C-alpha cells in the first residue's frame, strides 16, 4: 500500500471518494468484474447477465471507466490489466474478498461522528453477522497477506533448530507458514479470538497453510500462554492495541520467548514528521473500530526496549509501502 499525496478539494472530496469506494464495492458485490472476465460487454448486456437495471449498470460502468477501473471501447466496457489482476478471482493478485470486506468497513464509517463525539469504538464484528461475514474477513486478510508474506518471511531472523512459532492474531497463518517453510522443523501455532477460530482454520486450509499451522483459541490480552517459543509474530494486530495494552502484550510475550528468540511485528507505521494519508487514514479507521491506531516505528522501538527486547531493527518493504517490519530479540 503506497502513500499518495493529495491536493485538497473541499467541493469534491466530501463526495467523490465515497462514491468511488461504494461503486467498487457494489461492482464486486453484484459480480460485475466477474461478468467481464471473459470479455467486454455493453451495459445492456451486462445488466441482462447480472439481472440489474440497465441504466444503473450504465452509470456504474461509466463511473468505473472514468475512475480507471474499466476500459470503454465504443459502447462496450471491459477490464483493464489492474482490474483483471485484482478484481477477478483468477487474477494474479486477487483482492476480491478484500472488496467484499470493504463493504463491511464502509458500514462502520457511518458511525464516525458518534465515535469521535463519545470516544466509543465501533466493533466491526458486531457488523459482521453470521459465519460468511467472518469468512469474508479472514479471506480478505489472506488476500492482502499473500503478496507481502515472502518478503516478510525472508526478513525474520529465526534461531537455529527453532521448533515453535506463535502467530498472535494470525488468522489465515500465511505469514507464519512462509516463515516455517524456510526453517524446518519450525511449526506455527496461531492464537485467534474464539469467534474467529473456525473461519481462520478454514481459510488457512484454503490458502495452503495447514501443513505448517495449527490454531488455538485465545485472546493475547487474557489467555495464559504455555511454554516458550523461538519466534513470536504479530501481523497487523498491534493497531488494535493502544500504547498501554501494547506494553502489556509485549511484557507478556517476552517471558514466553526462548533466550535469543525473535519477535517480529508487521504493521502499518504511523508517519513521523510528514503527512501520509494512507497511514493517517488507517489510523483514523483503527481509532473508529478499535479505539487504537497505527504506531510510529520510534514508539514501537521504545515499547520493545521497555519490555526488555534488544537488537531492534526496522525494515521497510522495497515497494516503499506504509508497512514496517520490526524485529527484536530476547537476550
Ligand atoms: C487485521 S487481522 C490480521 C490477520 C493476520 N495476522 C494478517 O496480518 O493478515 C487481526 C486478527 O487478529 C485477531 N485478533 C484481534 N485481537 C486479538 C487478540 N486480542 N488476541 C488474539 N487475536 C486477536 C482477529 O481476530 C484477526 O483475525
Describe the protein's architecture and organization.
- The chain is an alpha/beta fold and 331 residues long.
- The chain folds into two domains: 16-94, Arc Repressor Mutant, subunit A (Orthogonal Bundle); 124-330, 3-Layer(aba) Sandwich (Rossmann fold), CATH 3.40.50.
- It is built from 14 helices and ten strands.
- Strands 6-5-4-7-8-10-9 form a seven-stranded mixed beta sheet, sandwiched between helices. A three-stranded antiparallel beta sheet has the order 1-3-2.
- Helix 12 links the parallel strand 7 (229-235) and strand 8 (257-268).
- Helix 1 (16-30) packs across helix 6 (96-109) and helix 9 (130-155) packs parallel to helix 10 (174-182).
- It is globular, with a radius of gyration of 21 Å.
- The two termini are 33 Å apart.
- Residues 141, 145, 168-171, 191-193, 196, 219-221, 235-237, 240 line the site of S-adenosylmethionine.
